[in-house]
Amino acid sequence: MYTIGISGGTASGKSTFVKLLKQKCEGLSINFISQDDYYKDTTNTPTAEQKTINFDHPNALDFNLLAKHIKLLSTNQAIEKPLYSFEKHSRLSKTETIQPKKIIVIEGILILSTPIIKKLCNTTIFIDTPKAIRIERRIKRDIAERGRTRESVLFQFQRNISPMHIQFIEPVKNSADFIFDGTKDFSNALEEIYGLLINIDSNNQ
Question: Given this model, what pLDDT does residue 203 score?
Fold first, then answer.
């Protein structure tokens, strides 16, 4: 199994890139997995304590489980992938069965910042977008999709997101095999990665 890790700051365009890549690669043997589903379950954590959790720190995620799942898939074993609700800050009771395929694409802000995950990646991609643009994108997304207010998003950005980006995400940018501009059209980048994936898919019969 060939593993591709895609990272970049919050609201850099990672999810958009993956969505477009998924559409372009329809028919190829590929699994797409988001880091976000591997947030640790806080169902039994008091609401007041939940509000203090730094969801942009690696400790908020169960990377050991993600690494285990990648390894299982690579040995042709199916996994039960967790599903996470950002509105409830908890994992859902149901899981999603993922069958092994030739290629796996893993996307998330800390994929390249976490050694046990990065070492499992054959190819790495970083989506690079300026902070000011990422802030506005994050505000729009969280208001629309996660029931947040502009003020709460800005507070989180200043308290957690920006410091964690500086500490964990920005330092790994130049180690990526590909760096794509998250403010530009992804057409050329998609063609480049699609060419790589179609060769892998056809050569791993």
Answer: 81
What CA–CA distance (Å, rounded) separates 25 from 102? 13
Convert the pLDDT of each residue in 64-97 to its tens digit. Answer: 999 999 999 999 999 999 999 877 778 999 999 9
Give the tokens for residue 15.
């999810």
Average pLDDT on 109-137 reads 97
The pLDDT of residue 53: 83
Closest to 5 in 3D by CA, of 141, 115, 138:
115
Distance of CA 141 to the CA centre of its chain: 16
- How far apart CA 35 and CA 79 sit, in angstroms, is 15
Give the pLDDT score at 98. 98
Query: Cβ(5)–Cβ(109) under 8 Å?
Result: no
Query: Cβ contacts of residue 102 below 8 Å, gap of 6+?
Result: 1, 2, 28, 29, 30, 200, 201, 204
Q: Are strands 90-98 and 79-85 parallel, antiparallel or unpaired?
A: antiparallel
Question: Tokens standing for 1?
Answer: 């199994």
Sign of the four-CA dihedral 125, 176, 55, 93: positive
pTM: 0.92
